[in-house]
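Before a colleague's protein record goes any further, I have to sign it off. What it holds is a sequence and that sequence's fold in token form. Would you go through it and say whether the fold makes sense for this chain? The record follows directly below this note.
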Amino acid sequence: MNIYFAHMLVYLFARYLHIVCATVLVGGTLFYEMIVPPAIDELKHEQQLFIFARARWFFKWIVWLCAGVILVSGVISSYSHWDEYNRGPYHQAVSAYPNAGQAVQVSLMAQPGTWWAAHTSCGVLALIIAVSLTIGKAPPTQPIRWMRVNLIILLLVMFLATATRQTRLEAPQQMTNSVEPPESPSR
């Protein structure tokens, strides 16, 4: 098997798992915070606590498994695109015109590494909050409030992932478009 093909399969599988686990975390958070409380609202307090404790126990394993997979798949994806994320503000422009290459300054917002750093840091924060909500035998104080905060952070992480991918895909095109064709000699 070709090494490039194997690398591509590992990358695609890691990307797939990353997206699936992120979706499970967002969906699980939504379910746990928005569906369970109204569904058990009419039960006695002791029954509510029992259901919350049982749901939290199952949710704990989902959170821990998804957090681990997201971290590993994120490292694989970052490794695959590290050269694109690690470029500085100046790049050698690629052009269809020979000898037209020049250093092009790229805006901080147009650099994939900026969006990658924001995605990664917010993602790690969201995972820390999710895991901390499942540690211990009793939930922390105000778990629903923390889950709502985490849901907002998770949605932000999804936006930042999209922005990272978009700037990564547009960076070569942006540099190509920034190079002007060389002037042709006058005849």
About this structure: The two ends are 55 Å apart (CA to CA). Residues 3-83+108-172 form one domain. Residues 94 and 176 are 5 Å apart (CA to CA).
